[in-house]
Amino acid sequence: MIEKLTLTDLQLIIRDSLYIALPEMYWVIAEISEIKENSSGHCYLELIEKHPDENNVRAKVKAIIWSNRYRFIKSLFENITGESIKEGLKVLVKAKIEYHEIYGLSLVITDIDPAFTVGELAMKRQQIIHRLEQEGVITMNKEIDLPYAPQRIAVISSKNAAGYTDFIKQLKGNSFGYTFYTALFDSAMQGSDLENDIINALNKIGDNSDLFDLVVIIRGGGSQSDLSWFDNYNIAYHITQFPLPVITGIGHDKDMSVTDLVANKALKTPTATAEFIIVCLSDAENHIYEMWQSIREISVQYTSGAGLVLTNHASRLTAAAKSYSQTKMYSIESLLISLKNKTLNYTNLKNSKLNVLEVSLNILNPDNVLKRGYTITSQNGKIIKSKANLREDDVIDTRFSDGTAKSKVIG
Fold first, then answer.
1. Is 336's pLDDT higher than 90?
2. Same domain? 106 vs 141
3. Does the residue 317 lie in any domain?
4. What is the CATH number of the domain that holds 268?
5. CA atoms within 13 A on the CB side of 370
6. Which residue range forms the structural domain that includes residue 386?
7. In the chain, what is the straight-line distance between the N-terminal and C-terminal CA atoms, in Å?
């Protein structure tokens, strides 16, 4: 007879068997799908492995980093990678198997290799750039000409971001007194919502592209890890296909994100972005002023050198015009009489033709045709012009002058 066990006994057997079979520490490659720090400083994670298509999960396990170890791992990882430990990162962790009779199987992480993540991020970034190059779209937004005098600006930013405030202050407080019209499309500027928010904002602007001259994507300064959210293929591709020039001012002095690379113009800060737009308008104003100066100078030179000639020409032209107008007055009166007669004859002729056409149309009117004994056959509202269009058992409608009848084709 099989020995009866309590659930606790069975769980303990499973735990001891795992510890005996898998006593070592293991280096494991996985992606972080969930991460949470609790009040005591412990870090709880969910690790997954995806299929190559990056959609379906093929393996999943819970993990924990105890607080005393997590503080060290977090600090070292952020200093080396410039990234925080967050969802979506691919990591190489050192862990041991843990099995608890209530909480089940998990991994206890004792170390994370930052060099592995740095390599993964760099490789992912290069893969995105290479894909955009292969598709031949990476420079498409750069090929759009900047507007001559940009004043209508669509802004993609967080409404609470200091960078947005700096941008608006710089733009609307310009020393030239230029007027700019801005519309904010509120978006997360970091985190997992960033991709959807920016793409949705671009779609809304694109639906009303005739209302704007250009688009700016701005945020304030931040850590290197904040920049990595902009190394995103979907955001970059949307920018390459966008009908308006896109300018970025994401706030990083050293590195450029993939979003910066595909933008029409990449600037370091929101303030620099505003200043660039102001300079564009100033250049346009200067160009217009230079053209006005040139026209004025040419006009002055011409009029001062040709004043006497113009006076003589004016006198002769006045006299000639007076003589010409008197001569032509008689011709005009004669032409008016002739025009009235021809117009009346033409109108009568066209009225006769219209009467003939009206009679013809009445003859061809379907209602009149039906009254003469003809019928119109249709099926599902479509007129049947040939028996080849019908099949046995088809139901057809026959229209007479005084109503319709349904029939069934029997042969």
1. no
2. no
3. no
4. 3.40.50.10550
5. 13
6. 368-408
7. 80
Confirm whether 298 is domain-assigned: no
Q: Across all residues in the chain, what is the average pLDDT?
A: 86
* Domain presence at residue 140: yes
What is the per-residue pLDDT across 360-371, written as a single tens digit (0 to 9) for each? 777 777 777 777
Q: CATH number for the domain including 83?
A: 2.40.50.140
Say yes or no: 113 and 142 in one domain.
Answer: no
| Cα–Cα dist 12/172, whole Å | 69
Rounded Cα distance, 38 and 36, in Å: 6
Higher pLDDT, 225 or 227: 227
Spatial separation of the C-alpha atoms in residues 88 and 371, rounded to whole Å = 77
When mean pLDDT is compared over 44-58, 232-246, 305-319, the highest value belongs to 232-246
Same-domain status, 152 and 22: no
Q: How far apart (Å, rounded) are the C-alpha atoms in residues 84 and 226? A: 9
Which residues lie closer than 8 Å to 84 by C-beta, 6 or more apart? 74, 77, 78, 223, 225
**Nearest partner of 124 among 58, 219, 54, 181, judged by Cα:** 54
The helix-helix angle for 270-305 and 162-172 (nearest 10°) equals: 10
Q: Are residues 147 and 276 in the same domain?
A: yes
CA proximity to 25, closest of 139, 142, 108: 108
Query: What pLDDT does residue 98 have?
Result: 92
Structure tokens at 3: 């020995």
Nearest alpha-carbon partner for 217 in 193, 239, 191: 239
Q: Pick the closest to residue 131 from 227, 226, 236, 245 (CA basis).
A: 236
Q: Could you identify the residue written with the tokens 């009467």?
A: 355
Which residues are paired to 94 by β-bridges? 27, 111
Cα dihedral 183/186/189/195 (nearest 10): -110
Token pair listed for 87: 């969802």
Domains held by the chain: number: 4
